[in-house]
Amino acid sequence: MNLKSIILLLIITSLAQIGFAQNSSLSGYILSFEKQPLKDVSVSLQNTSLSALTNEKGYFMIRQVPPGIYTLAASTMGYSALKQNVLIEPQKPAILDLQLSENHNELQEVVIIGIGNQYKTNTSSIATRTDIPLLETPQSVQVISRQVIKDRQAFTLNDIAPLMTGVKANNAMGGFSLRGFTGYNPNDASFTTFNGIRGTLYLWSQQPLLYNIEAVEVLRGPASVLFSEGMPGGVINFITKKPQTEKRFEFTAAYGSWNAARISADATGPLSKNGKLLYRAIVGYDRTNSFRDYQKVENIFVAPSLTYQFSSKTNLNLEINYAHEKSVQQYDRGVYVKDNGNGTYDFDYYPKNLTVQSPSDFGKTNNTSATLTFDHRFDQNLSLAVVQRYVRSRFNFADHFVSGAIRNDSISRSYSLWDYDQFNAQTSVYANYKFGTGWIKHSILVGVDYNRFGWSKNDYRSSPTTRISILNPDYTNDVPAVNPAVDYYDDNKQATNLIGGYVQDQISFGTRFKALLSVRHDDYSLVQTPLSARDDLQGDASEANAWLPRFGLVYLPLPNISLYGSYTKSFAPQLSNSGGAGGPFPPRKAEQFEIGYKGDFFKNQLSTMVAVYNINYNNILAADPSTDNPNRQTVVPGTRSKGLEVTLQGNIKGLSILTGYAYNDHQLTSTSTIGKDGDRYVNAPHHIANVLLKYNFRGTTLNGLGVGLGGRYTSDQVGNLARQTFVVPSSKVLDALANYEMRRFNFQLNVYNFTNARYFNGGLSRNTVASLGNPINFRFGISYTIF
């Protein structure tokens, strides 16, 4: 080697040392949600070759990291992938401690990160079935974390609906509004999903239970590209709790107003010595009466699950859910509303305890589901999921309901008996492949769904029955006489087959521009068969198909801020397609345009989101009788829903924040038998605002104490589409909470509606009753956890 070569080598070495001198390191610990160290977690800085694995203490270190802003990715089998923006400063080591949430599906990754009391999550499974951050998702998505459910001491979906921006429970059953559209289980087949798979566990009269729920996700707007037929307002997805590698047991008990009691147990851990077979067992029982006369409900819930980890790349999960409900007065028929006779209504006239129902009314429901999920990751770029879900729901009830107008403080009623057996079988197969072409990165998702759902038994009878005095009811003559001349009967079975396929490409143009392109095709067929001559309809059949596109674009001017726009469509076959009524009819369709902003602040702990949208909904059925066919129907253009949503959610040191505001204008766009052009849509208030603030004391003599306040404002809403003057009044509801954590114990007190405001959830299809919200009530709970 000559002198020039030696000098050149010394210069290169010196420059390299100068460069390395500016570099820094990134280190930290990765724990499970139960704060247990996770070994062999893959930690990498995206778009670089820098990576590391955690040791048995969950510790990792990446050395010689050049200064700059990076996206850290952490993943391991059985836990959700995590992505976090990090800033590396010159010669300043960075320390980052993280937590991974349990993974419910390898391709449906959900992230719940941070250290305790977290209200914010970074990713969602429901939007794209891949692990892209919410910042890069071109649609409005909100995730209600386990901590929020715990602080609210929520037992059902209805308990947390007031915390979801723009979401409203229409009644004390299973009806909810999103962006002004009503979803009602199980009529809207994909309105609620479990781990992103169709097949609701609950029927019309039931509030979905949260015993085994890790988090609840809300995808606002049409979602048919991934979930097939559905309502235009959006999808609510339940993420269920899965088996964990570490032993854990939690017992909770609660008591509250109206003799309400609830107990539950949740156990998880390994079943085999090698740790490959994991289990989780969740059981619960609750019962409650009501502020209304005679009403009471009792629930039993059992949810065992098993996971077998064949390797770090392959696992199989089986989850069983069983929910039994027994009640007096199964349906919430609301309270009476007085017609003043001048086009106005008095919602405060009748006492809140009165109901049209009878003490002899009853309901029994048995719901069972089984979900088998196979996940395999071939390598870092290719993964496959196969999911089979089966649900069966059996329902038997007797019920009285309003059938006419109120006259002289008395009401005419009908009586119904219903014996029903429903099924839903869903098979989903989808694969995700990631690859790059230069500076452009692709994430391709290809999937096929087959869904068969319907009922094997639908024996329903509705009969006129006794008229009662509202203020002094006499129920002694409530058993109706059989009268075939006026009774209505259903006695049939129905099966619907739906098969669809979709392709989705998420494209990254460097770090600032992202695009989402997807398309789906669905074929739908329905056959309803009478089981006896009693059936009024005597059969029905329909077919439909649809092409459904979805496009989105995201721009990130900064790593923590994004701007997006999207276009998507949905479809839903008609519930009635009888040729005798003029059918078949084209399916209902909706298209949405949405633009928005998302931003993460305070070290990624506080998220902000603004969304503006417009939804056009077409092909609604309306009565169009003629002289030769009084049952004829026709399709009308439908409705238009537009609005604005603002959400602030997360943590600032000891303060937890969840607040939102939604403006919605949903109205008819044509005149027909269902209403006039410009009429307000039912149960769609213009304004909904919600807030929950909780402060957790740390490092003081009050360490372990948390206190919070919350509230909900809902502007007035039309409670009956045909009677626009039936306007449900606006309401303000205030709540308070406090908890104290002491070692393995947590004591919790929640007081709901502490001002005892009289408020209404919404209308109930008639202008004689409306759904009254709960007066002041409390829950006191205690939980004990063993790790």
UniProtKB/TrEMBL annotation:
Residues 134-235 form the TonB-dependent receptor plug domain. Keywords: Cell outer membrane, Ion transport, Iron, Iron transport, Membrane, Receptor, Signal, TonB box, Transmembrane, Transmembrane beta strand, Transport. The keyword Transport applies. Residues 321-753 form the TonB-dependent receptor-like beta-barrel domain. It comes from the Bacteria. Gene3D superfamilies: Carboxypeptidase-like, regulatory domain, TonB-dependent receptor, beta-barrel domain, TonB-dependent receptor, plug domain. The keyword Zinc does not apply. It is found in: Cell outer membrane. PANTHER family: FERRICHROME IRON RECEPTOR-RELATED, FERRICHROME OUTER MEMBRANE TRANSPORTER_PHAGE RECEPTOR. Belongs to the TonB-dependent receptor family. This is Metal-pseudopaline receptor CntO.
